[in-house]
Amino acid sequence: MKITSSIRDTEMQVTAYEKSWMDGVVYKYDDKCYTPIEHVAAIINMCRKVNGNILEIGSNTGVTARNLAMNFRDRIVYAVDYIGRNRTMCPDQSDENPELEVFKDCEDEPNVVCLHAKGESIRYDALVEVGAIFIDGGHTFEEVKADTMNALRFFRTKGGLILWHDCHQDETWSGVHRYVSKTHPEAKLIEETSVAYLFIQGSWLDSKHPQ
Ligand SMILES: C[S@@+](CC[C@H](N)C(=O)[O-])C[C@H]1O[C@@H](n2cnc3c(N)ncnc32)[C@H](O)[C@@H]1O
Fold first, then answer.
1. 137 C-alpha to ligand 1 centroid (Å)
2. Tens digit of pLDDT for each residue in 128-186?
3. Which of 59, 149, 167, when mutated, tests ligand 1's pocket best, judged by the most ligand atoms within 8 Å of its CB?
């Protein structure tokens, strides 16, 4: 998997986040957040390269969903997560059950749609013009594969952007890197992050799509 230097392009988005905060948008960001702010900025930066709404699979309390919503007021952010005992995640994710806190950080954003569902049961035909899918739900090889296969099927004719989080080369707990590097060697890892991405060619992606 190639490493890109896109993290450098993200400085602007970090500034945008700080500005939103300074403008009075109350935004909680602390050690409990699963996705470091630099990674969130990298995700936002990548989403700027495509048109369309954004789907996040595995939103937890909704920190990243909220950042996406604040940065793309003209887009819908679909936030997906679920609560309940029937959890199939890898053992190191066992403390990630959001329980009563699910979506608490994003549910008040006017452009966020919260969907209580597992990644594998998302009704893709009910989603409107999604151009980017951020996969951060179940991290086992099989779960990442299932979410990615659905995303690929969804983007088959229109095209779009797939992003994965926790694509750590050196971590054994997560199946993300194993799946992505094995199945999509053309995907790129954003330097200094564990965010990987892949553009899917299709008719709907516009000129923003970097060739
Ligand atoms: C690392 S947290 C997500 C953090 C969030 N993306 C963020 O940036 O703030 C992973 C989440 O995925 C959810 N999850 C695990 N398996 C899932 C599945 N099969 N479908 C949907 N969500 C899932 C967990 O409940 C957990 O809240």
1. 4
2. 999 999 999 999 999 999 999 999 999 999 999 999 999 988 777 889 999 999 999 99
3. 59
R_g of the chain, CA atoms, integer Å: 16
Question: Domains in the chain, please, with CATH?
Answer: 2-85+93-200 (3.40.50.150)
Q: Which two tokens stand for residue 184?
A: 């999509």
Q: Is 157 exposed, middle or buried (0-12, 13-18, 19+ CB in 10 A)?
A: exposed
From CA 33, how far away is CA 96, in angstroms rounded? 11
Q: How far apart are the first and last CA of the chain?
A: 17
**Closest listed residue to residue 90, CA positions, set 149, 174, 180, 177:** 174
The answer to whether 187 and 163 are in contact (CB under 8 A) is: no
One-letter identity of residue 26? V
User: Amino acid identity of 90?
Assistant: C
Residue nearest to atom 23 of ligand 1 (CA): 137
Is the pTM higher than 0.90? The answer reads no
Using the predicted structure, report yes or no on whether residue 17 has a pLDDT greater than 70: no
